[in-house]
């Protein structure tokens, strides 16, 4: 019985020339797209988690009052009252100068006129689910004030980020399925190409399992080599985009960054795809040989 060990002899025995190189290029493209999709999904999941941490328990109380004196008294009373409210970790008035700078792009210098009323805003951070009690406190002290929940008015952004995350997951599964299909087609084509060689191996005593081992080693080698090339190129693109995103200084986009664990998971993708290709090739060879030989 002939048993072929791993090595260059196995690859030469089933070497398909251009077909082998095409398989390597296909796997490189597949892994390039998969790593990009995986980076998008992991980044969006991380950004969503960061947004949830930042927005949980964050409220803004807005006091719109034309009478500046009344507005200031209500603001001071609200800050003091909210500080004593159970479940409130902190309550502070947002600096008026900072608000004026935020309004400058919309109103210009005219919006900074002291004669024009400017709303007062209080940033409230809670340590639990005390939004209802906070709203009652606000209504008692300043009936005209409005309470805005950060999570509520940013919910469309969060929903979009979650959708993008699961879209990336779906895209990765789709590419993995396409990869398995490509491996099946390449394996069946290899069986047809090496039909005479397989017949000789059978006459020498080789089993279907041993022949399948030759094919799966060939496929695993091509997938791993092409996958590593595509993955490394994609990781370089991801690193470049992450640097560009960090330079924007956006609080929302700053969360779209990969941790060390995320980079490690992306580096595992070539190995996982090589394993998927190996299993697919083995199944295809055993089924085909079992039916025809």
Entry keywords:
293 residues; alpha+beta; 2 domains; four-stranded antiparallel β-sheet; 10 helices; rod-shaped; disordered N terminus
Give a written overview of the molecule.
By secondary structure, this protein is an alpha+beta fold. It has 2 domains: 8-53 and 156-292, no CATH class; 65-144, no CATH class. The chain has 10 helices and 4 strands. Strands 2-3-1-4 form a 4-stranded antiparallel sheet. Helix 3 (68-83) runs antiparallel to helix 5, helix 7 (155-193) runs parallel beside helix 10 and helix 9 runs antiparallel to helix 10 (260-292). The longest helix is centred in the C-terminal third of the chain and has 41 residues, at 208-248. Residues 1-13 have low confidence and may be disordered.
Summarize the structure in short.
With 293 residues, this protein is α+β, with helices and mostly antiparallel strands.
Terminal Cα span: 18 Å
Strand content: 5-15%
Category from helices, strands and their pairing: alpha+beta
Mean pLDDT: 76
Number of domains: 2
Give, in order, the helices and strands.
HHEHEHEHEHHHHH
Question: What's the shape?
Answer: rod-shaped
Oligomer: single chain
Largest sheet: 4 strands, antiparallel
Query: Strands across the major sheet, in which order?
Result: 2-3-1-4
Radius of gyration: 31 Å
Flag low-confidence runs: 1-13
Number of strands: 4
> Total number of helical segments?
10
Indicate the percent of residues in helices: over 70%
């Amino acid at each position: 019985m002939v048993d072929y060990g791993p090595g260059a002899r196995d690859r030469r025995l089933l070497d398909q020339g251009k077909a082998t190189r095409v398989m390597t290029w296909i796997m490189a493209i597949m892994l390039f797209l998969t790593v990009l999709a995986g980076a998008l999904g992991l980044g969006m999941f991380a950004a969503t988690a960061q947004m949830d941490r930042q927005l949980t328990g964050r409220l803004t109380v807005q006091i719109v009052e034309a009478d500046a004196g009344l507005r200031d008294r209500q603001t001071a009373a609200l800050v003091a009252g909210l500080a004593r409210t159970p479940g409130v970790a902190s309550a502070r008035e947002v600096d008026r100068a900072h608000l004026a700078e935020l309004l400058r792009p919309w109103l210009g210098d005219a919006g900074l006129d002291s004669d024009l009323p400017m709303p007062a805003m209080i940033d409230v951070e809670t340590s639990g689910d005390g939004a209802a009690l906070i709203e009652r406190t606000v209504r008692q002290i300043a009936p005209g004030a409005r309470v805005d929940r950060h999570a509520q008015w940013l919910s469309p952004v969060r929903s979009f980020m979650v959708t993008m995350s699961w879209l990336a997951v779906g895209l990765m599964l789709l590419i993995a399925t396409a990869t398995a299909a490509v491996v099946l087609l390449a394996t069946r084509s290899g069986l047809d190409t090496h039909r005479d060689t397989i017949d000789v191996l059978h006459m020498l005593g080789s089993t279907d399992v041993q022949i399948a081992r030759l094919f799966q080693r060939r496929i695993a080698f091509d997938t791993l080599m092409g996958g590593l090339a595509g993955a490394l190129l994609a990781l370089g693109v991801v690193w470049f985009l992450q640097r560009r995103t960090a330079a924007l200084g956006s609080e929302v986009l700053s969360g779209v960054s990969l941790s060390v664990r995320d980079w490690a998971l992306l580096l595992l993708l070539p190995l996982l795809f090589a394993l998927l290709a190996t299993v697919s090739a083995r199944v295809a060879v055993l089924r085909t040989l079992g039916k025809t030989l």
